[in-house]
Structures are given as structure tokens and as C-alpha cells.
Specification:
The chain has 183 residues and is mainly alpha-helical. It has six helices and two strands, in the order ααααββαα. The protein has a two-stranded antiparallel ribbon with strand order 1-2.
């Protein structure tokens, strides 16, 4: 199970890096762009993810993951005043997550924690949140790609480059490694 924790941390770090690389390509105005009325801009998605992270990971082994102080509905009202403020919030959420899971030990993984009074093992809670964040980071990347159009810098294997990518990967010796180690 120790490999599960290591892999989870690397996977969370990968999703954070996708967001970071998207933000690097966008202006503050582009981050705030809502394509249709009542849709979520990247800025709003970030605000929601951060609110979720702070609620779920603050004292997560001892307190319910849905904190009384969380104002979830307000997460869908864009209030960031600058790109720097958005990035500070983004990093605060991720710091809260990493500070909660990096000290975990294998024996913690079967502990029961609660989210809205629903019991989860720590493994189930990590999986639940990882999928939630992957869903929203995918939205962030997709919206960033739409905003930039032809000027988007691919965050994965660029179209038409699969053969080159695979050739590079198969040129290496077989070995156990996390796919993010080469990024």
C-alpha cells in the first residue's frame, strides 16, 4: 500500500501541473471567460476546487470533510481580482491536500473518515477526491485549449506526434517508473 500512497501523490501532482501549465498560457481575462451565461469559467472552477480541497483535507482524519465554514454556493461566484490571487488560492488548496496526504502511513489507509456523514476508508476518500479534481482539471485544460485555439501548447502528446513519442519511450529499458517521471 505504500506504493499506492506514492502513486497517489504523484498523480495529484500531475493534475496540479496540468492546471499550472494551463494558467501559464492564459491571461487573467481569459481565465475569467464564461462561454455561455451561467457556465463556469476557469476562474470559477478554480474557486470551487480550492473550496473543496480546503474543506476535504483540513483535519481530514478527525473532522467531517464537509466543513461548517465552507460556503460551497459562493464558490460559483467569480471573485478573484487578479491572476496572482487566483494562483495563490490554487496553491493554497493543493498545499492543504499535500500536507494532509504526504504524512500518511500504510496503516492509515483503512481508517474511516467522513464526508457529509458518509463513511469512507482513507483510500476511498483519496480516490473520490482524485477523480473529482481530475474531472475539473480536465475542464480547465479543455477551456484553456478552446481559448487559445491554434496557439495552445499541448500538455500531452501533440497531434501527429504519437509515433515519435512511442519511439522515444520504447528506446528506454523496461523498468518500473511512474509515467510522470519523464514529463
Amino acid at each position: 500500500m505504500n506504493s499506492y500512497l506514492e502513486s497517489s501523490i504523484k498523480q495529484f501532482d500531475y493534475y496540479k501541473s496540468l492546471g499550472d501549465k494551463t494558467f501559464d498560457q492564459l491571461t487573467f481575462e481569459e481565465l475569467k471567460n464564461e462561454f455561455v451565461e451561467d457556465s463556469n469559467s476557469i476562474s470559477i472552477i478554480v474557486k470551487h476546487i480550492v473550496g473543496n480541497m480546503l474543506s476535504r483535507w483540513t483535519n481530514f482524519l478527525t473532522e467531517d470533510g464537509e466543513k461548517e465554514w465552507r460556503m460551497r454556493d459562493e464558490e460559483f461566484i467569480d471573485s478573484f481580482k487578479s491572476k496572482e490571487e487566483l494562483l495563490t488560492a490554487w496553491n493554497k488548496g493543493w498545499d492543504c491536500l499535500f500536507n494532509a496526504i504526504k504524512p500518511l502511513k500504510t496503516e492509515d489507509l483503512e481508517r474511516i473518515i467522513y464526508i457529509r456523514n458518509g463513511g469512507h476508508t482513507v483510500v476511498e476518500a483519496i480516490n473520490r477526491q482524485m477523480m473529482h479534481y481530475a474531472y475539473h482539471v480536465g475542464q480547465i485544460v479543455f477551456l484553456g485549449k478552446i481559448v487559445k485555439g491554434k496557439n495552445w501548447q499541448s500538455l500531452s502528446i501533440p497531434k501527429g506526434k504519437s509515433k515519435d513519442y512511442n519511439q522515444e519511450k520504447f528506446a528506454k529499458d523496461k523498468g518500473k517508473r511512474h509515467f510522470t517521471e519523464d514529463l
